[in-house]
Amino acid sequence: MSFNYQTLDPQLVAATEDWVAENFDSKLSQLIELVKIPSLAWPDVDKQPLYKSAERISQLLSETNVFETVEIIQSADVGTPAIIARRQAKPGYPQVLLYAHHDIQPAGDLKQWKTEPFNPEVIDDRLFGRGASDDKAGVVTHLAAAEMLRDLEGDINVGLTVFIEGEEEIGSPNFSDFLNTNRERLEADLIVVADSGNFELDTPALTTSLRGLVSIEFSITTLDHPLHSGVFGGVVPDSMMVLTKLLASLHDENGSVAVQGLKQMPDSGIEVPEEFIRLQSGILEGVDLIGKGNLVDRSWYQPSITVIGIDNPSVSDSSNTLQAKSRCKISARIAPNDDPASALQALKDHIVANVSFGAKVEFGEVELGSPYLARNSWATKLAKDSMAQAYGKQAIDMGVGGSIPFIAEFVRQFPESEVLVTGVEDPDARAHSPNESQHLPTFRKAIQTHGLILLQANRIVAE
Predict the structure, then answer these.
(1) Are residues 216 and 194 in the same domain?
(2) CATH number of the domain within which 309 lies
(3) Is 273 within the bounds of a domain?
(4) CA distance 27 to 132
(5) Could you say which of 369, 389, 408 is where a domain stops?
(6) DSSP states of 204-239 as a string?
(7) How is residue 283 annotated by DSSP?
(8) Helices assigned H by DSSP within 328-377
(9) Residue 432, helix vs strand vs coil
(10) Is 3 contained in some domain?
């Protein structure tokens, strides 16, 4: 369904700016409170903090007095708690769903942290703590938008659903079933995801594309048993020799993917200096970057292939032996306009065509994740206008090299919905890494952005 959005109401811009100035300290306090809860959904960890997190978020949503229902719902398989709060739209007005997740990554090596990961600290303009940016700031941003709607609008016309997932960091294994089971609760005209970030610290971005994922395990066999390398080396091909020749064929001399049949998108036209990539990646001095084309396009719009595992004797366990069988796993990121099934077939075809000396190849487990490519719509314009007002700078369309399969699942299950991928992260947020932090000026701007989207949606009707 399309809605008649034209431009932001200037009065809303001033009102939201004042609201954020008055309420920011309380939102920061709520974020600090949530970051103190080690809400891990990972197997074999204590799930009580995850339930504590769900209960507190449910309480905060209930206290807004915006929603008709607020429920904690466990996924069927691993029992992780999600929260769904919902208020139904008046006829002709949009139903907006706000998504974030409250589960987090493990803290990792505590020796690499400058602060205690679950004792958040504000240092300069950042709040340090595990989950501060990914994604508890997203949770509080949605909460603030709901409160802004309550405080600044006399009549609430827009429908509002807040969906806080509890297992995103373990791959959302039950996401598809959860959407299907809770379809009536989650159906919306507009879905706003707060689990991405901005291109630069001061440059807002709407994530309009995500690469898909294709990973595959396979084994190479040349012998029915291992052999002495001194006796048979130079005569009999071993599996590791065949495997290394095969893996070398995946890339050309520039390091670009050399597999036929994988797609790529046209250049974005966005230029970044090489030093930016070097600084963000930590690549060693003297090591060259790989690929061709614009630097950002190499990770946004082109495929990549990484060898992520090889089963063969380790150096410490090695002996002078020709190995009969070697096992490997490769992970491919595919362009936003590609299809996982066809990309998988292209990879298999390449592997089979490049297995040398008549070695035997056997395929194993496969993982597929669909890419995402946004469409231009009334919602896209509304989001960019809101970002421009909050940040004082025009938003750009940004691709993300990583895959977020649940985004594609939203699109698959709700094909008529508009999906906006936003977020509160910045290039130095260090999500998943030691010293994760939330840049507080960005947090402030994200709250105003999401508030503007929601308040303007309260004033538009279906065409």
Answers:
(1) no
(2) 3.30.70.360
(3) no
(4) 12
(5) 369
(6) -EEEEEE-EEEEEEEEEE--SS-EEHHHHTTTS--H
(7) P
(8) 340-353
(9) coil
(10) no
Q: Give the residue among 204, 179, 216 at the shortest CA–CA distance from 305.
A: 216
Q: Which residues contact 143 (CB under 8 A, 6 or more apart)?
A: 27, 30, 57, 60, 61, 64, 162
Q: Is residue 153 part of a domain?
A: yes
CA–CA distance, 425 with 137 (Å, rounded to integer): 9
Number of domains, the chain: 2
Reported as half-sphere exposure (CB side, CA atoms, 13 A), residue 293 has a value of 19
Whether residue 312 contacts residue 240, with contact meaning beta carbons closer than 8 Å, is answered with: yes
Is the dihedral angle over the CA atoms 289, 290, 292, 293 positive or is it negative?
A: negative
387 and 342 housed in the same domain:
no
- Cα separation, 304 vs 292, whole angstroms: 12
Identify the CA nearest to 269 among candidates 295, 288, 290. 295
List, run by run, the mean pLDDT of 10-residue segments along the chain (463 residues): 92 97 98 98 92 98 98 79 98 97 95 97 98 97 98 96 95 90 96 91 92 96 96 96 98 97 92 88 94 94 96 94 97 95 98 98 94 92 97 93 86 94 92 95 98 97 91
CATH of the domain at 162: 3.40.630.10
The C-alpha angle 446, 173, 418, rounded to 5 degrees, equals: 40
Same domain, 33 and 95: yes
